[in-house]
Amino acid sequence: MVRKVAIHAQSQTLPGSEAEMEPPAEMIRPGYRGASKLEGKIALITGGDSGIGRSVAIHFAREGADVAVVYLSEREDAAETQRLVEAEGRRCHLIEGDLAEAEFCRRCIDETVQVYGGLNILVNNAGTQWVCQDLTELSDEQWRSVFETNMHSQFYLAKAALPHLGEDDAIINNASVNAYIGPDFLVDYSATKGAIVSFTRSLSNQVVGRGIRVNAVAPGPVWTPLQPATLGAHDPQWLEGFGEETPMGRAGQPSELGPVFVFLASLDASFISGQTIHPNGGTVVNG
């Protein structure tokens, strides 16, 4: 059982560091047993150096997949993810760069296929956010930057990945509960996450006839480096009791998200496409 942990005021700078988080996040639940659900599969995971992405990488590896992990600049975190994946007996290839750049996104796909000989699962997990409580103060540059990282990258990556995907392969996009509840201090971020939900639905309708499943995950508050590097950077006190507003009264752990991605990537989800899964601590969003 994942238990509530006390999260106190703290801050970091973007893109954030897993090693500096207090308390540390849980990446995989003790006793989680792999069942070869992704045996022989090849996955590309963006933002896989820390947080949800790291948990997905470890869970995928325990289920038999080799992974490529894309990260912005957090080399120590990325190296730790690589160590953890390799400890599961699988391969982990690291790719450093900025997903806001279309050419880099295309290179991520090409490099993964070149290294591993193919691609079966694309996990569009990377994202960023900044706090802004007044739309009139939200700069054009910030608006564009958040969309370029959170939304445009998913388009570039999916477009480049599709020629390599086939029957029973999957694309999984990370959305957010904020697409549904619309917090007033994350207008641009929430807008990107709403776009991701719609992108997921439309892309599924376009490719599901080829046997490619496209789904999204909309996490609630999860304890990852993005929180102290954005909410905490704005005001460290914002993290005091982070996640306690959920019906479960706590934040989620990355270890509770990894299995959701395993489910959507595996044939356990063979009749599911165009949908959004809501691991959010019990918040009902009707979407």
From TrEMBL:
Pfam family, one: adh_short_C2
Family annotation (Gene3D superfamilies): NAD(P)-binding Rossmann-like Domain (3.40.50.720)
SUPFAM superfamilies: NAD(P)-binding Rossmann-fold domains
Organism domain of life: Bacteria
Region (Disordered): 1-24
Keyword line: Oxidoreductase
InterPro entries the record matches: NAD(P)-bd_dom_sf, Sc_DH/Rdtase_CS, SDR_fam
Homology family: Belongs to the short-chain dehydrogenases/reductases (SDR) family.
PANTHER family: NADPH-DEPENDENT ALDEHYDE REDUCTASE 1, CHLOROPLASTIC (PTHR48107:SF16), NADPH-DEPENDENT ALDEHYDE REDUCTASE-LIKE PROTEIN, CHLOROPLASTIC-RELATED (PTHR48107)
Protein name in the entry: SDR family oxidoreductase
Source species: Chromohalobacter canadensis
Lineage, broadest ranks: Bacteria, Pseudomonadati, Pseudomonadota, Gammaproteobacteria, Oceanospirillales
